[in-house]
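Could you show me just one protein sequence together with its fold in token form as a worked example?
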Amino acid sequence: MEKITLTPEQMDQYKTIVNEVENLRSLTESEKEILIRDIMEKPFLDLLCDVAFKYVFSQDMESLIMLLNDFLPIKIVEVTTEPNELVSPVVEDKKPVLDILAKTDDGHKIIIEMQQERRKAFFPRLYYYGSKLLSQQLKKGSHYQDLMPVYVICFTNFTMKHKGCPKDQLVYEYQHREKNGGGLFTKLHTTYICELPRLAQKALEDMNPIENWFYILRNCRNFVRKPEGMDPRFDHIFEVAKSNRIPDKERTQYLRAMLSDYDKQDIGEAYYEYGLEEGIEKGLEKGREEGRKEVEAKAQAEKIAMVKSLLEQGVKASIIARSMNLTPEQVMAMKD
């Protein structure tokens, strides 16, 4: 595969973008170059990045149709992509921006999302997306039986708890059902949560289509070439996902997205919200650490205040040091 080598002009341009990220400005010029090359000289785009995901699947209708047919219960022959902002006639309405909004030849609308990091209100957000598609369908004089089912497919690079489901399940399908009996209320709103980290290690030739998609989406950035043993039906996506095919405008957007620093507080709240075991443990660990530091800081402040008071009263530093398990040097340092 043709090697991608950045020109000096490109490198200077990309360093400017790196400097837009506050916590990366302090890197040395050499470290910035290494970071940029690691992102921009890879043979394939990182499909976990929403910019790359949007670009590839908005350009490659063949692969988009194949993906939808592999995941959805409907047969799709033709598909188009629409503007990814869900507009509303009500000015005050929240207008979400999607990764991909697809429309099939028979009128079904499908949202496809790539979610790299846990975010607060993850499920409500996906539900809102699908509900907006439903609410936009009927005009004055329309009939409720004319409503078309909407589908939301979300790929995540993290896992969550799904009550009553096996841990090795890859795709979780959510619909409206009766609480006790489980009877289906309506098929009008279906959400698929596809958790990429749940893919088990196995030979490519033993993977089914869903597993193939999981493998490609999660690992594309690390491929040097199309993996041996991969089903030929995926050849096209490997062509479109080549890094040297992406236009300059999308290329700079891709770099910005790959460099972006996520809102850690938001992620922390999501851990709490979903009650994930690893999230709870991280929260407890963080709380313990912060609590320990706070106690230590308070104790140190009290010790310094006591040392200063004793020194002001004329007590010798050597005596204070022995009584408080300090060195004379440490005692005198607290004086200032």
